[in-house]
Amino acid sequence: MDWRFEAALKLSGRPPVGGDRPLLFPCRQTRAIPHGMENQTASDDRKILVYIDADACPVKDETYRVAVRHGVKTYVVANSFMQVPRDPLIERVIVPAGPDVADDWIAERARRGTVVITTDIPLAARCVAAGADVLSPKGKPFTEESIGMTLATRNLMDQLRSAGEVTGGPRPFAAKDRSAFLSALDLIFVRLKRAGFA
């Protein structure tokens, strides 16, 4: 494992996958463990799956469009009700409220062949460690080579903001970001299918 990546995981304060959190119980609106995932078999490990860290995600519709075109199942994970299209390939998952509950749910299912859409850097680090493809809404892939520096920069900026030395945030989401995301997600699906995932 790259030393920067290993150091980034230590900085995050969280394990790559799993943890001590118990299994999530179903919510009233939908199951916390989607139907069909409770008894996964070895063949399921060759399926491409998408997990959207849905709170404040600006590219949910774009993800639906590309994933449905490729025939890929998408899970929209949030801790409150969220409207999703009526399509068998798109499933809403509502997890209990609490810090990092949605992140933990996604990270525990990340593996090679899964695609995670998130802006959360610690979550991205956990999923990259598990072998998942991780993509930001702006179309930037998180990789083993990049996540260490990204996480270190994020932690530094948090410290500077806490000290009042930095008041600005990231640049606003733009049309070019949407286009970059669509292209990057399509390329990930093509690459995974060439690698034998379906």
What secondary-structure arrangement, pairings included, does this model have?
Blueprint (H helix, E strand, L loop, with lengths): L2 H10 L36 E5 L6 H10 L3 E6 L11 E5 L6 H7 L6 E4 L3 H9 L3 E3 L5 E2 L1 H19 L12 H20 L4
Parallel strand pairs: 1-2, 1-4, 2-3, 4-5
Antiparallel strand pairs: 5-6
Protein name: UPF0178 protein GCM10007276_16500
Family: Belongs to the UPF0178 family.
Short description:
By secondary structure, the chain is of the alpha/beta class. It contains six helices and six strands. The two termini are 28 Å apart.
Strand-residue proportion = 5-15%
Number of helices: 6
| CATH arch. level architecture | 3-Layer(aba) Sandwich
Q: How would you describe the shape?
A: globular
Highest CATH level, the class: Alpha Beta
Radius of gyration: 17 Å
Q: How many β-strand runs?
A: 6
* Major sheet strand order: 3-2-1-4-5-6
Spatial separation of the terminal alpha carbons: 28 Å
Number of domains: 1
Integer average pLDDT: 80
Descriptive labels:
198 residues; alpha/beta; Rossmann fold; 13% strand; UPF0178 protein GCM10007276_16500
Describe this structure in words.
The protein is of the alpha/beta class and 198 residues long. The protein has one domain: Rossmann fold. A 6-stranded mixed β-sheet has the order 3-2-1-4-5-6, with helices on both faces. Strand 1, helix 2 and strand 2 form a beta-alpha-beta unit. It is globular and about 50 Å long. The two termini are 28 Å apart.
